[in-house]
Amino acid sequence: MSDFSGIWIPLITPFADGAVDHAALRALVRRYADAGVAGLVALGTTGEPAALDAAEQDAVLATILDAAQAAARGGDGANGARALPVLVGVSGNHTASMRERIERLSTLPIAGVLIAAPYYIRPSQAGIVDHFTALADASDKPVVLYDIPYRTGVRLELDTLLTLAAHPRIQAVKDCAGSLDTTLALIRDGRLQVLAGEDVAIFNTVCLGGSGAIAASAHLRPERFVALYRALTAGRLDEGRRIFHELVPLIQAAFAEPNPAPVKALLAAQGLIRNELRMPMTRASDALAALLEGLGAPGVFEQDAERSA
User: Which positions does the site annotation Part of a proton relay during catalysis cover (predicted)?
Assistant: First the structure.
């Protein structure tokens, strides 16, 4: 069994003059390792995998895995520490092709695969169970279900999730369905680790007993998201509430326009990447970019914390 607790960051894919910027990607991995995140997601929605060809996807994953290992060693191979775990997003609606992809990924040192329901075709719940079962059977690594109906067009109903929870390799769910009843039922059932997929739900999910979050907005102030998780899991509710309230404006701004444009705008303002996306995605508006830059400025969260104390 793997442990998917904590704050996981679904990495953006930085570009420079239209090509993947592997140097910037490597630096981001080190930055988030230093911030204490639990793990990374490669080729998730935030990473714009639909805009990458197969060779680019493989190269992005190779860079992330290598950088995650190097970060664990302090960058010089000296201490042999455990590499930062990396989940890999696998999407599609052709089960056989996805099986082949997952079989290839199983040969790599990954923490598992993150799989959404088949998009666009809107299969029945029985079809969804068959699809995920076939993929989990093909995987030697743990599977994290990705319930995100506003992207796929179909929801993973509670009975479906509970059925899939019986599979020995299906171990967690990224919960983006927006149903408190489903979230609570899965946590109470206890077989799947529940990770908040809507960033504004992190506080509620962890307080209810969920395992953490896969949070795109954690790109921007990773150390504060880690502090939030640690405070809540240690029972320091007042501290956790203060941190969460500080983060809410940043979380809301990070999703005010299509993801990952806002995240990339602030990372670019911080000098970490270039503000580039691939069509059909577009850059964040100037107004939102200015708002994000203000929210992400050094000292903003510290000042808010002092006022809230």
Answer: 45, 120
Residues 234-280: tens digit of each pLDDT: 999 999 999 999 999 999 999 999 999 999 999 999 999 999 999 99
Which residue's entry shows tokens 């940043």? 250
Q: What is the pLDDT of residues 137-152, one digit of tens each?
A: 999 999 999 999 989 9
List active site positions: 146, 174
Query: In angstroms, rounded to a whole number, what is the distance separating the alpha carbons of residues 32 and 7?
Result: 10
Question: Is 141 inside any structural domain?
Answer: yes
What residue numbers does the annotated binding site cover?
46, 214
Residue 253 included in any domain: no
Q: Indicate which CATH number applies to the domain containing 112.
A: 3.20.20.70
Three-class secondary structure of residue 113 per DSSP: strand
Q: What is the domain range of residue 46?
A: 6-232
What span, in angstroms and rounded, lies between the C-alpha atoms of 95 and 151? Answer: 18
Residue type, 132: F
Assigned domain for 241 exists: no
Please name the amino acid found at residue 151: R
**In three state form, how does the secondary structure of 251-306 look?**
HHHHCCCCCCHHHHHHHHHCCCCCCCCCCCCCCCCHHHHHHHHHHCCCCHHHHHHH
- Reference 198, options 215, 211, 183; nearest CA is 215
Distance CA 129, CA 107 (A): 25
Is 218 within the bounds of a domain?
A: yes
Binding site members for pyruvate: 46, 214
Provide the domain count of the chain: 1
